[in-house]
From TrEMBL:
One of its GO terms (molecular function) is olfactory receptor activity. This is Olfactory receptor 9Q1. The keyword Acetylation does not apply. The chain crosses the membrane at residues 7-27, 47-72, 84-102, 122-144, 164-182, 221-249, 261-284, 296-316. It holds the Pfam family 7tm_4. It comes from Sapajus apella.
């Protein structure tokens, strides 16, 4: 049975006369949480159904849009380029980390809270961290790909061979796996006792740290260092790549050519700004132990809104994707 409080066990042991006052204190300290309850957005039950319908609609659009992007890239040979290969993996990651959190959030809204076992909470945290870390690395690789295409166009085909592309993607997955393992082990070697209600939409780091008891300084340092490394390392690659891109564009004599060249990167810049902006707000602003309504809204932004918008961002301003989509729809109509 999941332990939600220490009261039952203290009374039970005291009644048996097995321990004294000091023993009761020790027993209370050793009574650990084995189940968590997600309670975000449950303070106003009248909003549960509207929020459920809204989030369900957004989740279905996320699945449809990202799956459609993957299929489009697979079936259209003109999109078999390094940038679109990375984009297909980004769409796959968006599907994965949305699916890790959103179905649980929908169940929470219907039932007014959702119970998660300790193991299931740890698994959810691991998977979300894994997919989120890969997302960071893929966005960095896409920036590097833009840099090669704009700054070294003559060497682009030589540098971005099929083997190089697969190695970069594999490296992103391995780095994401390592980061997720370290952060999950560090987070769940903490002791969680007493309260077990998480005022958040899934088992994430800020609310978990709020429930930790005992000395957790070492684990928190490891977790924060790895979070900072993943985000800052990816942002450094992106910023340096775009610095060289801007310098290269400024050397182009024609203003029209400058605008045309830079327009190829605007979709990626938009996605980067949305994704890293929310991560920095939630994880790197010095209040990891807090969980507020503002944090809940931001978490919905990067678990639902950004994955839903990414296919639109990369298709509305991309002539190749729009042309491929038009031909694909025509082919479907004819069949």
């Amino acid at each position: 049975m999941a332990i939600r409080s220490t009261g039952y066990w203290v009374v039970r042991v005291a009644a048996l006369g097995l321990i004294g006052t000091t023993g009761i204190t020790a027993e209370m300290n050793l009574t650990l949480v084995t189940e968590f309850f997600l309670i975000a957005f449950t303070e106003c039950p009248e909003w549960a159904l509207p929020l459920f319908l809204l989030f369900l609609f957004m989740y279905l659009i996320t699945l449809l849009g990202n799956l459609g992007m993957i299929i489009l890239i697979c079936v259209d040979r003109r999109l078999h380029t390094p940038m679109y290969l990375l984009l297909s993996h980004l769409s796959f990651m968006d599907i994965c980390y949305s699916s890790v959190t959103v179905p649980q959030m929908l169940a929470m809204l219907l039932e007014h809270r959702a119970a998660l076992s300790y193991t299931r909470c740890a698994a959810q945290f691991f998977l979300f961290t894994f997919f989120g870390s890969i997302d960071c690395y893929l966005l960095a690789l896409m920036a590097y790909d833009c840099y090669l295409a704009v700054c070294q166009p003559l060497l682009y085909v030589t540098n971005m061979t099929q083997q190089a592309r697969l190695s970069l993607v594999a490296g992103a997955y391995v780095a994401g796996l390592f980061s997720a393992l370290v952060r999950t082990v560090s987070a769940f070697t903490l002791s969680f006792c007493g309260a077990n209600e998480i005022d958040f939409i899934f088992c994430d780091l800020p609310p978990l740290l709020k429930l930790a008891c005992g000395d957790s300084y070492t684990q928190e340092v490891v977790i924060v260092v790895f979070a900072i490394f993943v985000i800052s390392a990816s942002m450094v690659v992106i910023l340096v790549s775009y610095l060289f891109i801007i310098v290269a564009i400024m050397r182009i004599p024609s203003a029209g050519s400058q605008a045309k060249t830079f327009s190829t990167c605007t979709s990626h810049l938009t996605a980067v700004s949305l994704f890293f902006g929310t991560l920095i707000f939630l994880y790197l602003r010095g209040n990891l132990g807090q969980s507020s309504e503002k944090n809940q809204v931001v978490s919905v932004l990067y678990t639902e809104v950004i994955p839903m918008l990414n296919p639109l961002i990369y298709s509305l301003r991309n002539k190749e994707v729009k042309e491929a989509l038009r031909k694909f729809l025509n082919r479907v109509k004819l069949s």
